[in-house]
Amino acid sequence: MRPLFFTFNRRRGEIPKELQTCLTRDVKPCHVSTEHTALETTGRDRPGLMSEISAALYELRCHVTAAVAWTHNARVACIIHIEDGLMRGPIMASKKLAQVHEKLESVVEAHHESGERWSVRLTAPAVGRTHTERRLHQLMYADRDYKQCQGSDGSCRQWNGCTNTHVTIEACREKGYLVVNIRCRDRTKLLFDTVCALTDMQYVVFHAAISSKGTMADQEYFIRRQDGCSSNTQSEREKLAQCLIAAIERRESHGLRLDICTQNKMGLLSDVTRVFRENGLSITRVEIGTQGERATGTFHVTDASGHEADLRTVELVRQEIGGSVLRVYRSPNGTSRASSSSISRNSSGEVEERAKFSLGNLLWSQLERFSENFGFIKS
């Protein structure tokens, strides 16, 4: 297949209208209403954290209408949309909001270490909220999840055949640009994630060239600081490289992907995450939403050591949650849609895998339609 090649050039400093719309518009899992209260949490990840948070919300009679969480470099950022479980509407009472905030702070700080950074924030209903995944990038950037990322300083030129993420940054002094070159594994929403990182760091893209061949993608950006400053220190380059690598890695899926489609009910997230925790599974990524009487969700899980979960353990989870509502996808090399399977038992009672279409795959494909406005990189 011919490689895709995309370029654009700008003379002015403002973001193009199409890109600006995609970065700021409000799109949420399964048509979440902007009337719901949003809970944002960032901090150090630990096994069972999502279970503890959702259990606390259930105890306070808060109904979770949608939840999205990413983990990266032992940090976690999650956005949970909640409503009053009794009144079925946004939580407006200041006393109830304060109660929720106090309870969740006690949960996330229960095992905190000295100097540990935690943030719990409740926001009132609003029409102009930032796109959920855009906001996750902002939360993880503010939480400095990029600190452990290592970028190439230009000395590593062994790009061919390497599937790691490489970032090189050079100065174009004649034009006052920084020239950023990125080579990494190709996937959907790659361009979105990269542009989010540049925008959050207050850089303006003036020229760009993006191409894809096989499983790899190449991106080149000519950028300047938004304030016009031409500062070009080594520390600035290192931070930029770290942040770009982090933005690319945050969305990568680790472990098995479990798709759930079941009846929407109070405490559903608490029940599901409790089952994972009790069976020794650690959640690395979550997307769950509700629409009417149905709830659909995607969970990426590993064992407690971060390795791929044993299929027999997953089968136990399937039995407890409900065999008709859970499908399992393998996630090789960080790609969550490379292959799919369902877990079942053969005549001898052993667990086996069979290729099968997942309803959750179809429903959650709707979440990715916004990325088409970017013309995502795909060969």
UniProtKB/TrEMBL annotation:
**Domain ACT, first and last residues per copy:** 257-333
Asked if the record carries the keyword Repeat, the reply is yes
Entry keyword Repeat: yes
Q: Which PROSITE patterns match?
A: ACT
**Keywords for this entry?**
Repeat
CDD domains according to UniProt: ACT_ACR_3 (cd04897)
SUPFAM superfamilies per record: ACT-like
Q: Which Pfam families match?
A: ACT
Highest taxon above the source species: Eukaryota
Q: Which InterPro entries match?
A: ACR1-12 (IPR040217), ACT-like_dom_sf (IPR045865), ACT_dom (IPR002912)
Role this protein plays: Binds amino acids.
Q: Which PANTHER family match?
A: ACT DOMAIN-CONTAINING PROTEIN ACR1 (PTHR31096:SF7), ACT DOMAIN-CONTAINING PROTEIN ACR4-RELATED (PTHR31096)
Q: What is this protein called?
A: ACT domain-containing protein ACR
Q: What gene does the UniProt entry assign to this protein? A: LOC107932575
